[in-house]
Design goal:
It is a single chain. The protein is mainly beta and 710 residues long. It is built from 4 helices and 37 strands. The strands form 6 sheets. The chain has a 22-stranded antiparallel barrel. It has a 5-stranded mixed β-sheet with strand order 3-9-10-7-8.
Amino acid sequence: MTRRNAAVRTVLATTTILAGAPAALAQEQAIDLGRITFEVQGAEPVGEDVNPNTLSGMKTATEITEVPQSVSVVGRETFERQNPAKVDQVLRDVPGVQAQLYGYDSDTNWFYIRGFNSFDTGAFMDGLSLFSYGFGTFYVDPFLLDRVEVLKGPASMLYGASSPGGVVNYVSKLPDGSEGRTLTFGADSEGRAWVQGEAAGLIGDDLSYRVGGKLQRQDGHGMFDPGVEGTVYGGATKAFDDGGKLTLHLSYTHMDQDHVGGQFLPYFGTEKEAPFGYFDDYYNGGDPDSDAYEREQLIATGIYRRDVGGWQMTDTLRLGYADIEELYVYPNGFTSGQVPVPGADVSRFVFAHDSYATIAQNDLRFTREVATGAVTHDLLVGVDMRRYRLDEEQSFAFGTPLDPEDPDYDDDQPAVGSPYIDGVRVQDQIGLYAQDQVRWGDGWIGTVNARYDTVWSSFDDALGADLDRQDDAFTWRLALAREIGNVTPYATVGTYFNPQALGAASEDADPETGRQVEVGVKWQPNDASLITLSAFDIRRENVSQSLVNSGTFDSRTLGELRSRGFEIEADWQVSDSVRLGAAYTNLDVEIVDFDDDPTIEGKTPQSVIEQFGSLNVAYTPLAFPELELRASARYRGDSYADNANTLDVDGGWLLDAGATWDFARDWTADINVTNLTDERYTASCQTSFGTSSCWQGEGRVVSLGVTRSF
């Protein structure tokens, strides 16, 4: 038996054990359970808690102030007021996170953390990786979530192969013993409209459920025709006489839509003026008769919790698939090259892919508190396994040109040619990990982590060279903190690894590795306020930069990168009626070593914004407590469209406003205006094969949602 097959059989064996656990472990004598709280501690609704327990950063329920890295938690009570269409909108006010790099992209959540791409190996759901490669991605709608958590900096010591910038953990709406129903209707000025409903309750004293569904019309942003997205979920938690609890959660998503506009536009005409001026807002370089995008996705999760011999056991299982088909006509510079001349048209590519991704994961962990004299140890040991499989085809053709001022979409597009990618990619990972959080003396907290991973990567290519390699890595973290009243300073150092892409060209490529040093302080002046200040230095070696360029990927090795900087996050209750929020990020991201082109050493990687932040205020009149008024300002700093830093992209300020009004018993209205002044800006630009592509930022959007609770 090969080690890869052994790992897969271990996953299957663990799954079998999980399914049979309640019966096998049941005690002979039944226990009167009474009314039970079913919530998963560390994943429960956030409410108004500014220092909630979180599982991100420790894998045990730990308050934010006790996690020795910077962590941000955004509860649905906060982001639902904003009527978000996508999760990357939820992340706009989180320090360290550069969200919506590609403007309003209706089918993908995009984010960088601390200057590094984290949307492929940094996306997690309920603590398990939603690893993706190429177009084999998993999409998560904010409707499915109770909270969004961001752990900044390397996390391999807990999660194995992952982004050095950090991870975004989507926390599902799990049954928690609550009861009630809601129904929401909403629409926005771009033509998006949605209806969603949820119900939660108890069946007897030992079974809790939660179900919901959302149907959304997707429109505007330059779409040729309206699209549709449907999402449903259901979950149940069963409590057993032996004290064990089993939670099952299932979500299904279907998307059928065209692409939005404002994407892959040339640098000139988007960021800088061209001979014809600038592209119209949401200029769509696609083709209404060709453009198509369809996704079918299913994600099933099981969480079993029980005390076993003095240890608390948690076993989390995930099975999922995503079936994506896409045909996309998109711009690629001008017929005259990157720099347009008078009369030049927009050059276009035709791209098609059929991607079928499956994922199977299991994370089995045990926790226990042990006292040795005046010292206490919160121990964690575990093993997790993951298999990701992607069966894909990609095809390409040169499309017809398009007038940048007066586009005529009547020309027929050529059929795509034979596939240039046709194969199956597989990545298996198994990791053993341990953690000890030690408490002693007058508020001292020490944290020690160690993990060992083995990753097998393969690519069975019907058209070319195959890939078959194995990578092993040991990662760790050491941290020290001290609680001094309501202030907790901390220092941490940790390492990470991330195997290179699953292509044949990476056969001899070593995994990306590196480390982070972080120091910070977390201050909770009162129960309703929390301020975090952190400074960090991240080093990355064996870095490969993948560019988003449908059909013609540009993956280049940059060698060594460094990201250093500081972040400030504040949630401050100024008075009974005023709450302030602030976030600021200051980065210095640098290409340290690049053998292929030493001229870009010392430069900032393309698309990375090094300074950004936000300031928001919420006001609830004491005489009118049913109303909350909100205003915010977001700053986006400058960036570059190329690694040589010759093409600059300007930043700017964006203003938002909103209000929530409980206008009648059990009725609530949420109105929001983003980009209040309709500021024209570029979300980001990047250069691939000598041609720069830019993405227009989202213009002013007015949204209204009305919710009935009963």
